[in-house]
């Protein structure tokens, strides 16, 4: 994929929004003075895209398409003996690759020049110490990559090798040469086994995330639950007995809205059914929300179909979702479809397992960042505080992530936030609370 041959807007993937924001600052150090590189395509980013487009005689629409991204790429050349925010971003990127030739001071001096030369050499580029379009594009390609495997080489592999040697989960010591050979593949397998991942020797988004030593580990459900309890919110899940499980299974199987939307070719019989009662309560308030969450499977040849449904305490179906996964490889396609109780499509997503897994990890990283920010500022007090700070559905996602869905990170927080979070938000009357 040519990273400049795409559309980056409010619906874009976070890592590509960050790439765009870096480019805007590289091109104009005065750009994005408030939020900087935050991965959010808000009004500030849109305004600065507009400014660039207007200045360069491009179509002014605030959307960074191939023409805008290509022009940004062409126009940016960072040279020795310059300074500013763009140079600081360059230095941060070099450090991300474990190229530690200079301090992050915004000064393109001899150390930064040598760091650029090292990067160029490792990635088979012209070695001149100038961060021009080809060098910066290669940096952006590697930084936005979320998978590397045997046969790959260069700065991203070198970063992973350094991280494998530095981590404390497994006893690993390998040569750092930038070549993803058998030794690195085996080291990845050892790390994956030690951290209870799928063991395949491929450094995908989960492995790469867990290797990050700079506080990018997703906050565990247990840690989040304790944090919420410390701030007056108790989350609990309780597996339900066979009677309730069978009753809700029968109700779902007979529901016309559900039956009318079962993916084509799938069996109508639900299997591997599990039901949990999820409770969110305010410790110091007389408020509580409870929902039944059902997860199950529908078999289909060459596909895996996961079903999730939410019932209220009166055993009335509120929402349901299908997750159709066409294989177990990172490149396999996955479709997520969410419906209300009447069978109306609420939303749908379609992407590869690789991208959906990475999106889920981004959600978890955002949660970690919010928790850290709250801890540094002031305590939360209510469920509505929490959902207002993040997004309706996040707490639901956390609770069900702890319960487990059977297909891991792909459908953890993301699915639950769709099929249960908005219900909780509404039942707690958060809109009224926040307005008051």
From TrEMBL:
InterPro entries: Peptidoglycan-bd-like, PGBD-like_sf, PGBDSf. It comes from the Bacteria. Signal peptide: none annotated. Residues 17-72, 84-139, 153-211 form the Peptidoglycan binding-like domain. Pfam families: PG_binding_1. This is Peptidoglycan binding-like domain-containing protein. It comes from Shouchella clausii (Alkalihalobacillus clausii).
